[in-house]
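User: Can you fold this complex?
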Amino acid sequence: MKASVGNPRLRALVYQAAALAVALIVAGYLVSNTLANLAERSIATGFGFLGREAGFSIGETTFMSYSAADTYLKALAVGVANTFRVALIGIVAATVLGTLIGLARLSRNWLLAKLAGGYVEFIRNVPLLVQLFFWYVLITENLPLPRAALEPLPGVYLTNRGIFFPVPAAHPAHVWMFAALIAGIVAAFLFTRWAARRRALAGSRPPVLEIVLALVLVPPALVYLAGGTPTEIDFPRLSGFNFAGGTAFTPEFAALAGGLVVYTAAFIAEIVRAGILAIPYGQFEAAYALGLRRRLAMRLVVLPQALRVIVPPLTSQYLNLTKNSSLAVAIGYPDLVSIANTTMNQTGQAVEGIAIIMAVYLAISLSISAFMNWYNARMALKER
Amino acid sequence: MKALVMIAGVLIAAVAAVPQQAAAQSTLDTVRSKGYVQCGVNTGLAGFSQPDSKGVWRGIDVDLCRAVAAAVFADANKVRYTPLTAQQRFTALQSGEIDVLARNTTWTITRDTGLGLNFVGVNYYDGQGFMVPKKLNVKSAKQLNGATICVQPGTTTELNLADYFRANKMTFKPVVIEKLEEVLNAYFAGRCDVYTTDVSGLVAVRASRAPNPADHLILPEVISKEPLGPVVRHGDDRWFDIVKWSLFAMLEAEELGLDSKSIEQHLKSANPSIQRFVGATGDIGKGLGIDNRWAYNLIKQVGNYGESFERNLTPLGFERGLNRLWTQGGLMYAPPIR
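Assistant: Here's the predicted assembly.
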């Protein structure tokens, strides 16, 4: 590279280095000035508080136990896990519901199409916070107290403390069954890849569906039999103030998850509908000409092409759902924002708390984006 | 949402202000130049701070705000109120959005030393209690094992609650909701077995919010000390003194037997303590940088502590209890005004 002002590459490099230096200096100034001002006002700083005992309780936890004697770090981890739980369940359920409604809106059945259209227009245009309050009040005001619980199915109780249902009592065999299930899924995945390669090479393929089902279901069943067929069921039963045993969805979780699913599904429905309508009708006609029925034409010809249109906007809906879960604060579900707010208030360290919230949401959102981009790249048209 | 806006405010204030500038403009100067005291109060707790049917704020915390305004401006009405939730209150004060926080706030060492704030004193000695519906047949907090308990986040209540159940080897399920309205709705709807906050809050809520107050029982156990008092920003001693002595003047006036109706007659009193108090002799205003007759104006317009208590809390069924003057066996004690 020639070292002269006339060299465009060198000039570009210098400009970029200068821009970077300015950005770093501004960032450094902001940070040092913030710290100086916080110190001036005797406001505590630093992340040392994360190791201190939190001292407050949390209503529900996911995958981990927590007590008031644990640290702030653990409390925030519980918040992250709770956010994950509601986001994960919400994304899966909203995708299923949204796809069904999107397809229903395209249905040739007049009533079904109009109902789906009404759903989309109504739900999309009512603010989510209002819907969350609606679901929460619906549950807490209308369902009975535990002592007068509704029992729609034996062992399932509807109360304003939550929805309680029985689960198989904890047994060591369950862990092994889960491991066997995971192993079965991995085996099935490898098998389908092998089958696809074989079809490409040999033109014929083994009965994939049957073998996959067997691979997934048989190992856990064998472990279950080998583990002594534990049949004990943990039924919820009334004890003291509330139900004990079994498992439960709390009203806060149910209202938040339900609200997010119903709301996001309306947007996903429109995305699915738009994706399908984006495929030229000639594709249907071509599929019909090959003798495929409407359902098969949809599944084999149109949907795979529509997915390319659907996936990118779907990603933003997933991100929206995850971020909207922070509205949990309003109805008392202990998500990350709710717990970080409490932490900020108890320690007074708002700057650190906000930084943690931003970092966690950024990490979650970037992971979802990365996954969806990978999926999108797989679905995209491959030019050979 | 408002909390986030305020936190953003703190961030901006912290980032934008050049360090030396912070001390230049004192709170008293700012308050004088804008012409009113911006006071942070509860979003609606009967007896402490709540708008009445005409939209006028009433309560002993509101009276404290009015007392400060009367001391500074000789006009108790020069106050604007900012209703705050438990979670918003400290941020609002730190960011400079309010000048005084009078929102039934418990004085603890963490808050006094870690938040860049100073507690000026105590205007209500309180303790934490539990309220349950009578139909649960619970007579003691020791019977609450396994209960679901409604509580507001960001309070000392939330921490005491966890401590109490740990100490007594009991478990509970918290339902934590920020807005007072929403947390009370949850309790009255039966989402929780128990509502916990300071006993004063329980009494106020039972009297003013319960569909039928007789259906709810406040359990006998008081599980903590909750000295509630006004708060100002750390580092402005002049303003700290003004708010502190406004509170003390209300106590001192009650001790001296001065109230809003009689203080006029005492202007010519021969008692030297009273003469100093009303500003006829001495210079009690000079050190604070305000009018020498500030205490007279304050009592004339707002009344003494006992009057404020009887006006706001007695109608709701509050007992004076610990909040009697020290001369009557209570804890309320003001240093001499001389």
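Strands of chain A lie at 150-153, 156-159, 162-165, 167-168, 233-234, 237-239, 242-244, 247-249. Chain A touches chain B through 48 residues (CB under 8 Å).
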